[in-house]
Structures are given as C-alpha cells and as structure tokens.
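Board notes (copied after class):
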Amino acid sequence: MPNSNRPLRTVRSFVRRIGRTTAAQQRALDEMWPRVGLEPGATPLNFIEIYGRSAPLTLEIGFGMGDALAPLAATHPEQDFLGIEVHRPGVGRLLSRLGEQGSTNVRVLCADAVDILQTRIPDQSFDRVLIFFPDPWHKKKHHKRRLIQPDFIQLLRRKLKVNGVLHLATDWQDYAEWMMDVLNAAEGFENLAGAGQCAERPDYRPVTKFESRGQRLGHGIWDLLFKKIS
C-alpha cells in the first residue's frame, strides 16, 4: 500500500483554462457563492454544520458545467452533494442551474481536488465519489498527468466510508483500461461488476453533453464502480 502520509505527485491533472465567464454565470457567482461556496484552507470541513443535517454525501470531482451534479441534486433532495471544479465558468453555470431549480443540498469548491482532499476533507466523509469523463491525456508522454493514479485512489479510499462507492466513467477505451488496471491493483476495493468488468451505466448517472458528444464521435462509454471494503 502506498504511504498515505506522503504528498501526492505535484504534476497537475488539469490545465487552467482562461475561459469567458458569461454575464449569467457571473451573476450566479455573485448571488449564489456566499450561500453555497466553500473556500480552500487548512481547517477540516464539518459537513453536518455545513448542510445543517446528517445525510448521505456524494462528492463529484471535475463537474464541468454541472450536467450531472445539478440533476442529481434535483432528483435526490434527501442527499447532500459536494462539487469540486477548477474552471470558474463551469462553477458559475452550476450555480446558475442550482438557483433555477432551487436546490439547497449542494456546496462547491473552485480549487484543485487533490489539495482539497488533503487539507479540508476528513477521512471517511463520503458515501460516493464520482469522477465522470476526466481529461484522458491520451498521448503516452502525458499519462503522468492522468488524475487516476495509485496514490490518488488511496487518497480517495481514505475519504470514502466503508462500503462507499467510487464511480468512474470515460469515453476513451485506453483510459478505461488504465483505470481498471489501477483499481484492480488498489488495496481495499472490490469491483461491483465482477473482476475485470465494466458496469452498465447506473440509472442515477445522467447522460452529459460531453458524453453525448463522445457518442456522436463513435466513442464507447465505460463505467467503473468499485466499493471500498476496508
């Protein structure tokens, strides 16, 4: 098992894009951030205080424009959700959608997920962690930038509750195979679909615009569901 106390690699799995924030996104940031935004820092988050209740908690890393997170929050008001995304326009779009649908069960961080998991998230916090369509970094020389790496999976393992589920999805077969290899070798996880098998898309996972674009390009879709068993 990797030493869970050592720092994770410093290679980033993302490039910060300077995207244009629309007027609607900026308005949502101005209006909604004081209510749902959380800031980076060194103090562990107290989720019962943050949400005002004890409920199943799902983390989505890299939620993009909120195409999955917003519908999940709307259809499961009995659950709580935490989203982490580095791109400000995507955060603004999610906040706009949350305001439109009246969801109060989501909190958001605009930061690097690795940093947040290491500094602000107590161990055994999440019932579920979602990572949908992360950047595949398909060139071999860039594979070191892929988010799904052995040390990162062990970091997620610490933050999941026992029996909590890690759900990954990608439209790149090479990355699906990479993910499967990493998770098969990871201590403390069990493949819910059976050894070496990808899962059918669960009903709870919305089909995102990114996924639809991949399907139009002829890409397959691979879902991996692994349960923390220890």
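Comment from the instructor: The radius of gyration is 17 Å. The longest helix spans residues 23-36.
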